[in-house]
Design brief:
Helix content is 64%, strand content 4%. By secondary structure, it is mostly helical. Helix 9 packs parallel to helix 13 (259-272), helix 18 (396-408) runs parallel beside helix 20 and helix 23 (483-496) packs antiparallel against helix 24.
Length: 551
């Protein structure tokens, strides 16, 4: 049994603090690199990005990340919209979704921000999700995460490997005892970890709220949404059973919300008040209303108040905001309801309960159809999605699901026509390409494999860091009779999923093939050169891939 997500996070935090305590006396004899002691130099940008990448890889490896190109694109788009108007628009962010239904979100080094599916399910409008993202973005842009790392380690310490070591400890026993052993080893740091968290929240939460609300307004979202989301989370905690501690959502444990804090958030939003974009949306049946008011007068949607010093003091372009974007929230929320459920059947039962209280809206009908599709009920899904497409002609989410449902219902020709039409409209859309390629790969013929390669090839650069893409391209290449490309992609998928040693072994074996051309050999050599230092450092720290050791 693997440890729970919340327990894993505790392991990571406390293991880091234990190593901090021990590192001071032994840093020099272990010959660890000096990474400084100020917030600006404790970790450089490259090191921060590597920390975030490897953390995401480990979360993928243990199955915590929800890999779905449609919801990933929605979350990344929402996050990027806020990041572009944040206090550090040059900072690169990676937003990813977790399967867990608890209400939680977090930010870590390198601009990596994770959000649980449960938080989206608790929200009633996209603005509330954006409020949480804006808050977490502020933690990154204001260097709160980096400062917490600085406090946690004043001397030389490999933070990245501390995290990996905690995971290795938690998994080494292969059962429930692994949790107990790891927790016993780091129990002495629990008090220190709790105190550091308290210090972090007291000193930084107010600033993240203030800047997050401002980022919401800049991005065209309701600044009031932060207070409403906190109120919603408190309402969820009150309706759950159990004691006060058991009822508290995970997000409120690390981001304590009080009546005073909510009042302050409302006050900040009201002060932005008549000078900001306002609007809301709760389902795809509702369209975001966008209006800009300056001193009570309505002005065109293309203009709004800004504190951007590069523009006039009262106006700025409101770029990239379209009412059609808001419709995606309903589809995304219901798709997440299905993908985060234990089984498709469980998701369908959930929709049965919802329907008893009130008729399903279009977003919920979409979710039900996705659940039917996942449960192998292709014909039912086709019927439901066809009706939705009549009401929302040309909608990507519905059209893509309908094409997939037609394929599962045995209507291959109809599915291909629909997929090809989508490809013509958006040839580089990852969701379209991956879904179509998965359908083609399922046919398991060389012709289908070659077509899947053609569909995916335009995304080789832009989607190279997506393990789902690499796995699909690997399988397509295998079917198409291209073992070299297949081997490269399988190795890349392993690397992106926290199996760096396996990736290196696969690439080293692949390089021995005599039929490699110049370009393939160059690609493989470049990846070996990139991965080898990571594997050597992991081995130096005594961390080895357990599957490779067994063999």
């Amino acid at each position: 049994m693997r440890p729970s997500y919340s327990r894993l996070r505790t392991l990571l935090t406390t293991a880091l603090l234990v190593l901090v305590a021990a590192a001071g006396a032994h840093a020099q004899e272990n010959r660890l690199p000096d990474i400084g002691s100020s917030a600006g130099s404790v970790l450089g940008p490259v090191q921060q990005a590597e920390y975030g990448r490897m953390m995401l890889a480990q979360l993928r490896h243990y199955g915590y990340v929800l890999e779905d190109p449609l919801t990933e694109a929605w979350l990344q788009s929402t996050g990027n919209r806020l990041a572009a108007v944040s206090d550090d628009p040059e900072q690169r962010f990676t937003f990813f979704m977790m399967k867990d239904r608890s209400i939680n979100a977090f930010a870590t080094l390198g601009g990596y921000i994770g959000m649980n599916a449960g938080l989206v399910l608790a929200a009633e409008q996209e603005d509330e999700v954006a409020a949480v993202l804006g808050h977490e973005i502020a933690h990154v842009t204001q260097a709160h995460v980096l400062r917490s790392v600085e406090r946690a380690q004043r001397d030389s310490i490999p933070i990245l490997l501390a995290m990996l070591g905690a995971i290795a400890i938690a998994q080494s026993a292969g059962g429930n005892s692994s949790d107990d052993a790891a927790m016993a080893a780091i129990a002495s740091a629990q008090g220190l970890a709790a105190q550091r968290q308290i210090n972090y929240t007291r000193s930084n939460e107010s600033e993240a709220d203030r800047i997050g609300i401002r980022t919401l307004a800049r991005g065209g979202y309701e600044p009031e949404a932060m207070a409403s989301m906190f109120e919603r989370m408190q309402a969820v905690s009150r309706t759950n059973q159990g004691g006060e501690r058991e009822r508290l959502p995970d997000y409120l444990k690390t981001h304590p919300v009080t009546t005073t804090r909510i009042s302050e958030a409302k006050d900040r939003a009201s002060r932005l008040g008549g000078s900001t974009v306002t609007g809301s949306v709760s389902t795809p049946d509702a369209t975001r209303t966008q209006r800009v008011r300056i001193d009570g007068a309505t002005v065109p949607d293309s203009l709004r108040v800004s504190d951007n010093p590069l523009l006039p003091s009262t106006l700025t372009l409101l770029a990239g905001l379209e009412s059609g974007e808001s419709r995606e929230f309903g589809w995304a929320r219901e798709r997440l309801r299905v993908l985060s459920a234990n089984t498709p059947d469980a998701a369908m039962r959930e929709y049965e309960l919802i329907a008893r209280a009130a008729p399903l809206d279009d977003a919920q009908r979409y979710g039900l159809a996705v659940a039917q599709l996942r449960a192998g009920r292709g014909e039912q899904a086709v019927a439901g999605l066809a009706g939705l497409l009549d009401r929302h002609p040309g909608d990507l989410w519905i059209t893509l699901a309908l094409a997939e449902a037609e394929a599962h219902a045995g209507r291959a020709a109809a599915a291909d026509r629909r997929f090809e039409g989508l490809l013509e409209r958006m040839p580089r859309n990852p969701a379209v390409a991956l879904t179509y390629a998965d359908v083609l790969v399922a046919r398991n013929t060389p012709e289908a494999g070659r077509r899947a390669q053609e569909v995916l090839r335009p995304l080789l650069n832009s989607s190279s860091d997506d393990p789902a893409f690499q796995r699909t391209f690997a399988r397509a290449s295998e079917i198409a009779g291209d073992p070299v490309r297949a081997g490269e992609s399988w190795a890349e998928a392993a690397f992106l999923s926290g199996r760096e040693e396996q990736a290196l072994v696969q690439l080293t074996t692949l390089r021995k093939r005599e039929d490699l051309d110049y370009y393939a050999r160059a690609r493989i050599d470049a990846r070996i050169a990139r991965i080898t230092p990571v594997v050597l450092e992991l081995r130096r720290q005594g961390l080895r891939d357990p599957d490779l050791r067994r063999h």
